[in-house]
Amino acid sequence: MGERQWTAVRWEGTDPAENLAMEEYAFDRLPLDRDYVILWQYRPSVIIGKHQNALEEINGEYVRRKQLPVVRRLSGGGAVYHDLGNLNFTFLARTQGFSGEWAQILEPVLGACQALGVRASLSGRNDLTGPDGRKFSGNARYERDGRLMHHGTLLISADLGAMEEALRVSRDKMRSRGVASVRARVGNLREYAPGITVESFRETLLEALSGGRELESCCWSAQDRKEIRRRAEARYRRWEWNYGNFPACSMVRERRIEGCGQVKVGLELLAGCVTECHFQGDFLGSAPVEQLEGLLEGCRLEEAALRKRLEQVPVDDYIRGMDAGLLTELLLGGIVQ
């Protein structure tokens, strides 16, 4: 990227909500007279794009069982699974003198790959791929007031099995106006060069950015960290931002449940809350199921809210053999035996 001089922002946190809050804070508060790079990691989690429907992107049963945080970022693009085998990079760059081409800002990343023995290339609009065409990096960006935030993932030694499970498309039917992720064949960088580690790539990328000069660095003050935590609570830990922030959506959940029979439920959702609910199936019950449908209207599609609402009534009266826990799993897309 030409003769830009980069400042490295030090950050050791792995909490996804605080990571994204820190990135937003850096974008808003760091001086505009220079460019910055942040290299960071997440503990196991799923990060979705700004315009996506979280329910459409995740395997809800797996995410709940593994207690994976699902957090929405400010930029667009698709859903990504993170763990400590990923290295994430953020470039905060002045748009002045920047062409806007993805290849321009990804030049140092490609240079680091080459230095470590990986023949990588830019594929499509925003992916980096290895010599066999498998994707190891996805990228997204956000721009405002003369500053660009470009961030991407680097699969180095990630658990690809966990990634496949967490992002597995549900077998339930869903109609949504959210932007769905495009699934691609993925690979870890260490498959191409076994000696690559997260630390070796971090050091090599910083060398590529320094251009042979000593790279300046900065860190956050105690007051900065307090504000970052506040932002994490105000936005990135809120259900309304992570799950409720999507347009109207229709979905159908259907399972054969031992002791109940076939149970099918059609849901209409707005901002993550149930606006309409209709049950069908060969199940039995002693009370009109329409009462159960009415009870669920207005409830947000979230485990604690559903359990609280369903525990108010004898669910077994409406669907013989069903209880609040089983019905909550069904509504959330869980696998019930």
List the helices and strands and how they pair.
Elements: E1 6-9, H1 16-29, E2 35-40, E3 45-48, H2 54-57, H3 60-65, E4 70-72, E5 80-82, E6 86-94, H4 102-105, H5 107-115, E7 121-123, E8 127-129, E9 135-144, E10 147-155, H6 160-166, E11 173-176, H7 198-210, E12 216-218, H8 222-236, H9 239-242, E13 249-257, E14 261-270, E15 273-281, H10 289-296, H11 303-310, H12 315-318, H13 324-331
Parallel strand pairs: 1-2, 1-12, 3-4
Antiparallel strand pairs: 2-6, 3-5, 6-10, 7-8, 8-9, 9-10, 11-13, 13-14, 14-15
Structural account:
With 337 residues, this protein is an alpha+beta fold. It folds into two domains: 6-242, Bira Bifunctional Protein, Domain 2 (BirA Bifunctional Protein, domain 2, 2-Layer Sandwich); 249-331, CO dehydrogenase flavoprotein, C-terminal domain (Enolase-like, domain 1, 2-Layer Sandwich), CATH 3.30.390.50. It has 13 helices and 15 strands. The chain has helices at 16-29, 54-57, 60-65, 102-105, 107-115, 160-166, 198-210, 222-236, 239-242, 289-296, 303-310, 315-318, 324-331; strands at residues 6-9, 35-40, 45-48, 70-72, 80-82, 86-94, 121-123, 127-129, 135-144, 147-155, 173-176, 216-218, 249-257, 261-270, 273-281. It has an eight-stranded mixed β-sheet, sandwiched between helices. Strands 11-13-14-15 form a four-stranded antiparallel β-sheet. The longest helix has 15 residues, at 222-236. The chain is elongated, with a radius of gyration of 23 Å. It starts with 5 loop residues before the first strand and ends in a 6-residue tail after the last helix. 36% of the residues are buried.
